[in-house]
Hints:
Blueprint: E1 3-9, E2 13-19, E3 25-32, E4 44-45, H1 47-64, E5 72-79, E6 84-86, E7 96-97, H2 105-114, H3 117-124, H4 135-145, H5 147-151, E8 155-157, H6 159-168, E9 172-173, H7 191-197, E10 206-207, E11 213-216, H8 219-225, E12 232-234, E13 237-238, H9 239-246, E14 254-259, E15 263-269, E16 282-287, E17 290-296, H10 301-311, H11 317-326, E18 335-337, E19 355-357, H12 365-391, E20 397-401, H13 408-418, E21 422-425, H14 430-442, H15 449-456, E22 459-463, H16 470-491
Parallel strand pairs: 1-5, 5-13, 9-10, 14-20, 20-21
Antiparallel strand pairs: 1-2, 2-3, 4-7, 6-8, 11-12, 14-15, 15-17, 16-17, 18-19, 21-22
Helix pairs in contact: 1-6, 2-4, 9-14, 10-12, 11-12, 12-13, 14-15
Amino acid sequence: MPYLLGIDVGTSSVKVAVFDRRGGRTALCSVPCRVLRRRPGWVEHDPREAWRSVVKALQALWSKGEVSPAEIVGVGLSGHFSSVFLDAAGRPAAPCLTWLDSRAQDEAGWLAEHVGAAAMARYLGIRLPLSPSMPPARVRWVAQHRRADMARVAWTAQTKDFVGWKLHGRRASDAHSLMGLVRVPDGRVSPRYLARLGLSPTVLPEVLPPWQVAGRVTSGAARVTGLAEGTPVVTGWIDSYCSMLGTGMGDRSMAFDVAGTSEAVGVVTAARVRARDHRGQLVIPVHTELTAVYGLTNAGSDSLRWARDTWAPRARYEVLLREAEATPVEAGNPMFLPYLEGERSPIWDERASGALLGLRRNHGRGHLLRAVLEGVAFSVKHNLESALAITREKVQGVRVSGGGAIGSVANQIKADVLGRPVHLVAEPEAGALGAAMLAAVGLRWYPDLPEAVAGMVRMAESWAPRAEVREAYRARYRRYLAAYPALKGILYG
Length: 493
């Protein structure tokens, strides 16, 4: 039977999964991938370790015997939003900065002052936040602080592009993965703009559509990975986009919430988005006549992980979730701001801090855990309301996926906070599924992404908002929105 392989290179692990034509998963393997934190705000990784994790995961996959390499007819790639700098031999020539890295604050300020958001929008075809988490600031930091390293850079892309190169030998990426360096609508390059970043146009890879077959597995890669030589490999996409796709992005009737370590929340629209004020959202064309309007947070399910590690390091998540569920919704409950790693959308403030507010002597662990889950849900609402205000789309509900979507209490809280039904997709590994869906389009199993969504994304369970907590959550959400501006003035001006 023919299957598709999705390779999802995440921030802390690599997952490989096998899917059939209807999106049913046949096999899955996961291998950790180390993240390096050399200083506060410095978050790096080694793309070679990511490749080794891919190889280990594939070897484990074949050893299970659930599927054979000969049955894999196409490979899709998904990868976290990193900046890798490679020499001619494919070795790291400079630090590989992840999406969590915030060292380039001065460079982001320089871009705002000397280039400006309007000029960057002309160069890039989109409005991009002038943030240290974005590639322009990261690239300029390397060019300014590691000049000898930059001189050795033969090409720069993302980790999934390095994995693709190891599989098929072609230096290729997609315009979204090169966001901030090329024009997203057409992949064109401005040498003048790149010069201001300290980057030569010659170090950019070929820009291909995410679903285009970029190459085929080489004999050398086949020996290492076990994949059959000649297997088609499509270019791939950023992991957040693959996860959005695997959550149903492409269906305008539903919003999407990818509840991973961070969260990606938004909608797609066929209307042209003209608003100059994007309300802290990214407005990115993703497909023919479809634009995604979405926000990216820094700490979604990672907030619950932090809470577990801090308050109950030996407890199982299901135990903690039951404690949160048993805690009633009350006006006097604690409030949590989930800005544990600064924040991207919608406030774009790398200095923002997490906070627990309104603590009283009678509050126990259940109150704190519920506050964390509610804080994440309020962050989702903040982003979704911003996206809907821009697009004027009328969505019927929210599709949710990812590790933060496992467990009924978190989804019920989101439904209550959002005031909309929440639908859990059947496939929790939405990033790997999205990568496989790109391969499905590349192999012409489906004509386009919306058709792939209709054919491969299925629902598992739903939660409706509860009328009895509506007013309490409206009041608590107003307090949530007021908390960040007040704390900002107190903590760092």
